[in-house]
Amino acid sequence: MDAIESAQEQFAHDHEHGEVHRHSHGLIDDSIKRSHAGMRAVSLSLAVLGLTAVAQTVVFLASDSIALLADLIHNFGDALTAVPLGIAFALRSQVAERRAGLAVVAAVFISACVAGAEAVERLINPSTPTHLPVLALAGVIGYAGNLIAARVRLRSGRRLQSTALIADGQHARADAYVSLAVIASAIVVSLGAPRADPIIGLGITLVILRITWQSWGTVSGRSHR
Questions:
Q1: In this structure, is residue 137 part of a structural domain?
Q2: Which tens digits make up the pLDDT trace of 15-38?
C-alpha cells in the first residue's frame, strides 16, 4: 500500500508539474507572439506615415501651404507615436502600453498647437500658396497613407486588445479625412481666395483637438462624444 500511495503521489506531482510547465510556456509563447504582432503593426504604420510625411514635406517646400503644413506636422507626429508603442510591445508590458497611449495623446495635442500657431501667423502675414495641382496631390497622398496606417493599427489593436494601438488607429483614420482639407485648400485658392488656406489650417487644428479628446477617452477608458 505504501508503494502504491507513493507512486500515486509521484504521479500527481509529475502531472501538476507538467501542467504548470506547459501552461507557463503557453503564457510565454502568447506574450512573445503578441509582442511580435504589435511591433509588426507599429513598424508598418511607421513606414507608411513616414513616407507620407516626407512626400508632403517636399510639396510644402514648393507650395508654402499652411493647410498642408498643418497636415504634415500632424503626420510626422503621428509617425513618431510608433516609438513609445514599439518600446511598449518590446517590453511586453501592459503598463508601458498605457503610458504609450498617453504619449500618443500628448503628441496629437502638441501637433494641434503647432499647426494652430502656424495658421494664425499666416493669417497675420498672408501668403498665397503655389503649385496647386501638386498641393492637391499631397492631400491625396495624406489621405491614402493615413487610411492604410489606420487599418493596420485598428486591426492589430482589436486583435491584441491594445487600447493604445486602437487609439492610434482611430487617430490615423480621422487624419485621413483631415488630409482631404488640403485638397479643399488647393481648390479654394485656385478660385481666388488665398486667405482660405490658413483658415482651413485652423479648421484642421480644431479637428486635431477633437481627435485628441477622443483618443484620451479611448486610452483612459472613458467614452467622449
A1: yes
A2: 444 444 443 334 444 666 677 888
